Amino acid sequence: MANSSTPPNQRVTVADAKLRPSRLDLEYHKRKRYYVKLPTSINTLIAGILITLISLWYGQNHGWMPLAASEEAPLVDGLFNTMMTIATGLFLLIQGAIVISIIRFRQKPGDNTDGPAIEGNIGLEIVWTAIPVVIVLVLSVYSFEVYNEMGGLDPAASRDPGPQKTAVAPGSAMAATLPEGDGEQLALGVGASPATQGRNAELAVDVLGLQYAWIFTYPDSGVVSGELHVPAGREVQLNIAAQDVIHAFWVPQFRLKQDAIPGRQTELRFKPEVAGTYPLICAELCGAYHGAMRSQVVVHPPEEFEAWLQSQIAQQAEETPTVAAALPSESDRLQARTADWNVTSDTLASLHAHHSF
Amino acid sequence: MTTTTPLEPNPTPPNGEPEHNERHWKDFFGFSTDHKVIAIQYFVTSFVFYLIAGAMATSIRIELATPNPDFLGYENYNGVLTLHGTMMIFLWIVPAGAAFANYLIPLQIGAKDMAFPVLNGIAFWLVPPGGLLLLTSLLIDNPPVAGWTSYPPLSLISGQVGEMMWILSVLLLGTSSILGGINFVTTIFKMRIEEMSIYDMPLFCWAMLATSLLILVSTPVLAGALILLSFDLIAGTAFFNPTGGGDPIVYQHMFWFYSHPAVYIMILPVFGLISEVIPVHARKPIFGYKAIAYSSIAIAFLGNIVWAHHMFTSGTPGWLRVFFMAATMVIAVPTGIKVFSWVATMWGGKLRLNSAMLFAVGFVSMFLVGGLSGVMVASVPFDIHVHDTYFIVAHFHYVLFGGSVFGIYAGIYHWFPKMVGRMLNEFWGKVHFVLTFVGFNLAFFPMHILGLQGMPRRVVQYDPELTSLNQLCTVGSIILAISTVPFLINAVWAWFWGPEASANPWNALTLEWQTSSPPIIENFEEEPVLWSGPYDYGIDREPKDEQSVSELLAEVKAEL
Ligand code: HEM
Ligand SMILES: [Cu+2]
Ligand SMILES: [Cu+2]
């Protein structure tokens, strides 16, 4: 800091000479005194222990996350809990220092003098540069681990094939690690976790986002649905596309989200674990009815999933063209939009069920 | 450590008595080249837009008091939302930063005016047309509805006229910002009084240096993106339009290449303001001058290489997500240095808890929350869950409102006496602070939980299970709306009838306090003399100190 080690100051103005006599040699020593004074009382120790305990407890017990229903979700939650622990600790430490300052170091009535002329403290400054460095290093490595474990770095999902719908891997070593057939397809998003990389997922579903609905097609059986049905404990691969504008597929209980982008294929690969029905939300502004673009994910026990699939196959064989209309204008819109996508009236009805709460 | 050469007691150049024209009230309504007039014009204009955008925010929150779309409805919600965001950024925070920069930079470095006074006037006069254009766009049939980010393809298919007006308006405002940036950099480098080395500069000038460099690097890219977008919109090109083979992701990269730095363009000037306000009212030197100065520059540099953290769920490959995660996390380091330094400046001081200081302390503690959630959302796997949810809305309002707006209020309470020559009322200032603080936390803290639980942003309706938290937010936002009333009355009343302010009511050391309040037309009667560093508080000012010298010496000896 400028001036901190200058010899006696000669900067004197005419105006303020009286108010401000020149500095003394002593000033340096006076400051030195503050440099060595660090808080080391027993109170500090107790406060430190308390902050640590509260942070550790709160990091695990904030209760802010919804149910964790996929294999990936507990990984994200573990990371979040760690970040909450650190954040709570820093919050208490710094807010504590602020509150103590405004209580203890408040100007006393009638005291118009200045505080001590402390201009810095190299030791302290090094410490509080090092603390964030260590924290972000730990968080980066931990996040990297979690992301890799979730499948974010699966080569098939982490290289950009550019803006075309179906991309062909450039006959490289990478293509060799993939199985033949649709393994040549590259799409951005979250892919297979390291344990299952190179293998096809147990169930593939094509996902199409359009204003304002999701359409799920099961390529193996040809079933088309407005809700996503998946078996628990099986790896599912969603191949996500958008018809008109950008949408985003989000299931909070899975902690997974991926944009659906027109002209580009994206993917999400995950393993649902807990049977149940969860909201499926469009998270990217896609127009006036974006808020209504909701559906649901049903995670079935595996046998139940088979039954559902069979019932759909049977049902779609005997198409009924009547539309159960809850919202006439909107259903017209949806019907027009979905005409070329081979959507049944039942699908539409199930879409409507989730449009208004 | 630099040793500044002790200054010669500088006899002021005998260039005769400059004649002082009186400032006329009409000057404030026309084209002026006086940086102080332009600054006031910026302040008043941006505050008017803040009130309008704030009214929009309140209507958004009223809509969200119930889970159903029953107030603004599907038709109006997105238009109001788009204008709220765009105005808050381009017509409130950014020009309010320019207002402080205009007012303070020449005064703090002892200059008579900006380097390019005419350019300065032009920069300001781009703002009102830009603002009016944006406001009218809401009244036409097809208002802009694609959010302040205006992502294609949505922005290309929801009505040409409104979207085009939005683009033109943002281009005007961006141009204004670039012209301002050029002026600030030049002024800071070229117009300091001779004795003032760059390390004698007040930290606000350092912050504005960093901000202006960021503006100059990034804003042209936004202009480029918007011009290409307008071609797609009206000329049928396909830069970003996928139906013609364009790539909407390229727009996102270009947009965020500007708009991430933009968040630093909005916060760095406020960092500067806080670094001025806290030492004055804590009566203590700023803790770690150089660390704070350099961290501004570091933030400006890093701010340019983190843009894709807004695209972790978009069309981005995994390696890119991981790279931008790491780069983003690094920003926590210089930011942390600043926060710690401010707290250390207060620690052990003699705090005057007036309105300016309360808002400054409020800034530090609210910005801290935004910073902590910022590190969280930098983490790719976590951001995949919370991206585009209310967690993000909470995060950026803690940074932009709890940060920028609190800091701007601190600055207004601190420099109002200088700018207007009258004192604001302290009691109503404190009422304003308490209402703002309570309302703000009530309005925005619950949004963190809403986002984690599953509420996406930019929606007009939501899961009824989330109603009670949403209602809490709405109550908070109404308290916030009310909180501006005491401030407005206070400011208007004080402007005309407040007690007169002395030249240096806070006993501060930076140069702007060495001239009258308000300063005369060319700022200083005679070139000011740098008789102290900007933050040399507590140094030999009190006779008491001198009396205890021997005692001190003894102590020092004992310790050595
Ligand atoms: C007066 C208090 C304010 C309230 C109650 C408020 C409320 C809101 C709400 C509820 C949203 C989200 C709407 C949605 O996602 O559907 C929003 C968005 C936003 N707000 Fe505020 N806000 C306030 C002040 C500010 C300030 C001071 C800024 C400063 C720059 C700001 C910047 C933004 C931005 C950039 C957006 C995003 C707009 C978009 O998604 O396109 N707001 N605000
Ligand atoms: Cu949507
Ligand atoms: Cu950013």
Can you walk me through this structure?
The complex is a heterodimer of chains A (357) and B (560). Chain A is 38% helix and 17% strand. Chain A is of the alpha/beta class and 357 residues long. The radius of gyration of chain A is 31 Å and the shape is elongated. In chain A, 40% of the residues are buried. The termini of chain A are far apart. Chain B has 17 helices and no strands. Classes of the chains: A alpha/beta (357), B mainly alpha (560). Chains A and B meet through helix 1, helix 3, helix 4, strand 8 and strand 10 of A and helix 2, helix 8, helix 9, helix 10 and helix 11 of B. Bound molecules: protoporphyrin IX containing FE (HEM) and copper (II) ion (CU) (2 copies). One copper (II) ion binds at residues 247, 282, 284, 286, 290, 293 of chain A.
Features:
heterodimer; A: 357 residues; Immunoglobulin-like; 2 domains; six-stranded mixed sheet; elongated; disordered C terminus; B: 560 residues; mainly alpha; Cytochrome C Oxidase, Chain A
List the helices and strands and how they pair.
The complex is a heterodimer of chains A (357) and B (560).
Chain A: H1 26-35, H2 42-61, H3 73-104, H4 122-150, H5 155-158, H6 173-176, E1 188-190, E2 203-210, E3 213-218, E4 223-225, E5 228-231, E6 236-242, E7 247-251, E8 256-260, E9 266-270, E10 276-282, E11 294-300, H7 302-317, H8 328-338, H9 345-353
Helix pairs in contact in A: 2-3, 3-4
Chain B: H1 35-63, H2 73-108, H3 117-125, H4 127-139, H5 154-157, H6 160-190, H7 203-235, H8 248-282, H9 289-303, H10 318-346, H11 355-378, H12 380-386, H13 390-420, H14 426-453, H15 467-497, H16 543-547, H17 549-559
Bound molecules: protoporphyrin IX containing FE and copper (II) ion (2 copies).
Residues 247, 282, 284, 286, 290, 293 of chain A line the site of one copper (II) ion.
